[in-house]
Amino acid sequence: MSVSVRIPTILRTYTGGASEVKAEGATLSALIADLEANHAGIGDRILDDTGKLRRFVNVYVNDDDVRFADGLGTATPDGAVVSIIPAVAGGC
Amino acid sequence: MRREGLAIMAVTAVAPVAPVAPTTDQPFGPAVALSCRECGARSPLAPDFACTECFGPLEVAYELPVGDPEALRARIEAGPTNIWRYAPLLPVPVDVAEHPGLNPGWTKLVKADNLARELGVTGGLYVKDDSGNPTHSFKDRVVAIAVEAARTFGFTTLSCSSTGNLAGAVGAAAARTGLRSCVFIPHDLEQGKVVMAAVYGGELIGIEGNYDDVNRFCSELIGDPAGEGWGFVNVNLRPYYGEGSKTLAYEICEQLGWRLPDQIVIPIASGSQLTKIDKGLKELIALGLVEDKPYKIFGAQAEGCSPVSTAFKAGHDVVRPQKPNTIAKSLAIGNPADGPYVLDICRRTGGAVEDVDDEQVVDAIKLLARTEGIFAETAGGVTVGVLRKLIKNGLLDPAAETVILNTGDGLKTLDAVEPTTGLSATIRPTLDSFREAGLA
């Protein structure tokens, strides 16, 4: 169950500068736990104190915003591409 | 294959233009840092937009010229008749007015007595008509600030994700200032906006998706080597860019004779404009330029893209994204970045967020046109429609002085009104025909 995770610039200090890393987990929740195991500290940047996605983080599994799917329970199948993106962009 | 890949290949083949060097040692004027709206963490002034601690939005923090409001007022009033009269309150160098640019702002504040009579507003009603800007929308204000930041950071390409108006504003500003532009829009925008963005000669790229897809693409591009050296006005330059909307607040109050209005109705796309108008009003109070008194801020959305209105009515403090489906495409942001702050501000000030359907939007465009001679784009229709609905619902006080924003020109969204607007009659060129048509 290997998934590619695209890392935004502001989290690359946790991945040694890598813009994309591999992680494992059948759901987004499990995937973030795996990310944290391999890149200590990254989980707290993505999740708030209550374990929910921070409100200014958008996460996409392939092309789907997980907030339109099952949130942290969204399936992350083998070969999926997960993108973590700051939500504060755009508009005016 | 998606079009954006081709677009990137095309734009990287163009030679960059040399940036204009900063002209002072304080290129950001009174700005001193970036500050996270969520956790308050401060960071140096840089092309950053999200907090490294919590992903929260970064905004510009200032050391503003407090202490002598009369002198500041006089300095502003002696300034140019554009947004640079407020340079002492913006993240720009003191000599900004001498730089090449579109010099937007100082648009008309129209006293809308006819519309007021029609809607039963007795406390005074004004339309801040930002269709009078160089590219016919308020976006020229925010882009002007972003251009100054791009210049300082040494960016050679100006870019953005856009629902149309911003694309034109970026294209025009880049043309005037000698920067390259490459902007991204949903592929199915109104034809008027496509033409008005493309005519300035920069690259205009249609993305197969809605605005939120475009925005996501730009956010990813900025973290990729392909986006190196690019200033995305509403992504990595967003903290600076957003400050341009403060000038709407400054102008409204100055044009009222340095007074706060009682109520303001503002359209919501990302919500940034509404939050920055509130920031501008608070600054004017803090600087002693206006009397400190309560004001109410109301947000306006189209029903087909109403995530903030829905959250407001439900009592939520988070905004659940929606898939937009409305003719008001300049407001069709289903995942509005500043939505939570809009909720905070409207609740704090005693305002509200409301929405109207597309039929009401068109009707409101025509209402504003026939009462005040102002042809608004669909966003303006949303605002007028929401004003009418707020009065009807008893949420907005018709006896209080009210300002509404028209943020763009109706010529950009002709499609919206075309089906219900046209010739009254077609006659032969004779007086008999004229009389027969009942026109005498």
Structure description:
The complex is a heterodimer of chains A (92) and B (440). With 92 residues, chain A is an alpha+beta fold. Chain A has helices at residues 28-38, 42-46; strands spanning 2-6, 20-24, 57-61, 64-65, 81-86. Chain A has one domain: Roll (Ubiquitin-like (UB roll)). Chain A has two helices and five strands, in the order ββααβββ. Chain A has a five-stranded mixed β-sheet with strand order 2-1-5-3-4, with helices on one face. In chain A, strand 3 and strand 4 (64-65) form a beta hairpin. By secondary structure, chain B is of the alpha/beta class. Chain B has helices at 3-12, 69-77, 113-119, 139-153, 165-177, 191-198, 211-222, 238-243, 246-255, 272-286, 307-314, 339-349, 358-372, 378-393, 414-417, 431-436, and strands spanning 31-36, 42-43, 58-62, 108-111, 125-129, 157-161, 180-186, 203-207, 230-232, 263-267, 296-302, 353-356, 402-406. Chain B has two domains: 3-94 and 138-241, Rossmann fold (3-Layer(aba) Sandwich); 108-136 and 244-420, Rossmann fold (3-Layer(aba) Sandwich). Chain B has a six-stranded mixed β-sheet, sandwiched between helices. Mean pLDDT of chain B is 92; it is low at 1-20. Chains A and B meet through strand 3 and strand 5 of A and helix 7 and helix 8 of B.
State the name of the first-level CATH class of chain A: Alpha Beta
* Mean pLDDT rating of chain A: 92
Radius of gyration of chain A over all CA atoms, rounded:
12 Å
Q: Helicity range of the residues of chain A?
A: 10-25%
Instruction: Give the amount of beta strand of chain B, in percent.
Output: 5-15%
Bulk shape of chain B: globular
Find the count of extended strands of chain A (DSSP E, 2+ residues): 5
**Uncertain stretches of chain B:** 1-20
Sheet-strand content of chain A, in percent, reads 25-35%
Largest protein-protein interface: A-B, 28 and 51 residues
Number of strands of chain B: 13
What CATH calls the topology of chain A is Ubiquitin-like (UB roll)
Lateral arrangement of strands in the main beta sheet of chain A: 2-1-5-3-4
Whole-number total of structural domains of chain A: 1
